[in-house]
Amino acid sequence: MSKTWNIQVPGSTANLGPGFDSIGIALGLYLTLDVTLSDQWTFDHQSVHLPQEINTKDHLIYQSANYAATCYGAILPSCKVIVQSELPLARGIGSSAAAIAAGVELANQLCELNLSLEEKCRIATDLEGHPDNATASLCGGLTIGAMLPDGGLSLLSVKEIDVAFALFIPNVELKTQEARDALPSTFDRGYAVQASAYANVLIAALLMNDWKRVGEMMEADLFHEPFRANIIPYYNKIRELAKENGAYGTAISGAGPTMISLVQPEEVDEFVEKMRPHLPDYEIKAVSIDRNGIQLKVSEYI
């Protein structure tokens, strides 16, 4: 009797403006793996969003799975992995974090590690470097996290977030390192206090479903958006047009270059149709929040 594993991982948006490197929300766009044991490692990419040149040892899913297995003294068996993705690379909607989450779950299944959700989140955060996108992909809904001085992870997960998003996806990539290089290395104390205040109000408003205030705080960020605005195509135009057409607020999704608008679920499709004529070179999508996080199906066959 042999097994196949189907692993589905949602993409994510991070930051929502001032929630820099700590807030993530899972999105209804997915990375999917179909896995069978094999004599050697192979990856089969079946999506326009995935590269066709594949080096197994450099593959982020393989590296993440191998890291997770090594953390628990396990040896990762070889397998064939068929990969499909709705997440364009280097666009700020969590493609790398989804791959990390998928790799952690892959090791969990192949090596029978029996990891808890908390352990998966900790490993994924170690790999990603901050607890936003990957924890959202694993947990679903909204996650708010912090890496502690002792190396631990403090994480809050909230499933019931009744709002939708519109994504503005340009046909250009922006590597995370390039976006990070645009940021200052330090902030003055008064500046940091003000930036933190906006983040605090953002989180409180999210937990209270106060979408008007969430939108205001999304657009008040001081941590990263002022420094990345000039490398994001049509940054000001998108924010202005989105507000005119009913969005609560608009922010850079993750490190960009995708931007994301917060919209009422019953209005998001109409909002997208209104925005498309203004940005013909963009892919503009209505996206719901994924509340389930990573999902697994196991089948057996002879």
UniProtKB/TrEMBL annotation:
Pfam families with a match to the protein in the record: GHMP_kinases_C (PF08544), GHMP_kinases_N (PF00288)
EC number(s) per entry: 2.7.1.39
Pathway(s): Amino-acid biosynthesis; L-threonine biosynthesis; L-threonine from L-aspartate: step 4/5
InterPro entries recorded: GHMP_kinase_C_dom, GHMP_kinase_C_sf, GHMP_kinase_N_dom, Homoserine_kinase, Ribosomal_Su5_D2-typ_SF, Ribsml_uS5_D2-typ_fold_subgr
Superkingdom of the source species: Bacteria
Catalysis: reaction(s): L-homoserine + ATP = O-phospho-L-homoserine + ADP + H(+)
Keyword Protein biosynthesis assigned: no
Top-rank EC class of the record's enzyme: transferase
UniProt keyword list: Amino-acid biosynthesis, ATP-binding, Cytoplasm, Kinase, Nucleotide-binding, Threonine biosynthesis, Transferase
Record domain GHMP kinase N-terminal: where: 60-141
All copies of domain GHMP kinase C-terminal, residue ranges: 203-276
Any GO CC annotation of this UniProt entry: cytoplasm
An individual GO BP term: threonine biosynthetic process
GO molecular function per UniProt: ATP binding; homoserine kinase activity
Family membership: Belongs to the GHMP kinase family. Homoserine kinase subfamily.
UniProt function note: Catalyzes the ATP-dependent phosphorylation of L-homoserine to L-homoserine phosphate.
Full protein name: Homoserine kinase
Organism listed in the record: Rummeliibacillus stabekisii
This protein's encoding gene: thrB
